[in-house]
Design goal:
Length: 216
């Protein structure tokens, strides 16, 4: 297997993105060194394009496959061994602090091999993020969202209780208003009856008075 190695040494800090492109032939391997803190998550996207002499430009070739590996040099341990299509993504977590070797290799270029005129352009974007703590931050975010949902549900229940109370008060007010209206009507009829009785008594009394005086 043909192998070519070169080194890119970077100090890994949160949210750094490394973008580069290089050229290799079918079966050729390119490797990079990354200095990584323990537990840091490395993610990347890659894309391959093959040189077409007839068209004088690089074009995508779905027939190309890519092998990506990552080794923890201090621990002599391979942390990633991935085979993918002509473009895709990858990720791995640094098992220990120190140098990690990331290698890429392309297969399937037309005519492959050093004697071929076919050259593959490999574009690679590597992102070095914060430590992968087993999803703890994701769990904390979920818990935070859950707590906010609980608070919103509690506030919603308070609103429902307040609305229920206001509705009950409205019903009580309507009932009291109706009762007052009925009492006013009853009292009006009573007053009308009293006035009618007084008028009848006065008229009857005047009639007897006039009769006794023989005025009528």
């Amino acid at each position: 297997m043909l192998r070519s190695t070169f080194v890119v040494a970077l100090l890994a800090v949160a949210n750094i993105a490394n973008g580069l492109h290089f050229y290799l032939r079918d079966g050729e391997q390119q490797c990079f060194l990354e200095e990584l803190p323990k537990g840091f998550l490395v993610t990347g996207h890659y894309k391959t394009e093959e040189w077409r002499e007839a068209e004088k430009r690089y074009i995508e070739n779905p027939g190309i496959s890519v092998v990506l590996t990552a080794d923890d040099n201090d621990a002599s341990h391979r942390v990633m061994n991935q085979k993918g299509a002509h473009q895709g993504k990858f990720s791995f977590t640094a098992g220990s602090a120190g140098e990690h070797t990331i290698c890429v290799q392309a297969h399937g270029a037309q005519g492959g091999g050093w004697l071929s005129s076919s050259v593959v352009k490999f574009t690679l974007d590597i992102g070095i993020g914060e430590a992968d703590d087993g999803g703890r931050r994701a769990i904390e975010k979920i818990k935070d969202i859950s707590e906010k949902i609980k608070i919103l549900n509690a506030q919603l229940e308070e609103i429902k209780t307040e609305q229920k109370y206001q509705k009950e008060r409205e019903i009580e007010f309507d009932a009291a208003t109706s009762s007052i209206k009925r009492r006013v009507i009853y009292w009006a009829f009573i007053q009308l009856g009293i006035v009618g009785a007084v008028c009848y008594w006065q008229l009857h009394h005047l009639r007897r008075f006039f009769e006794s005086k023989k005025l009528v």
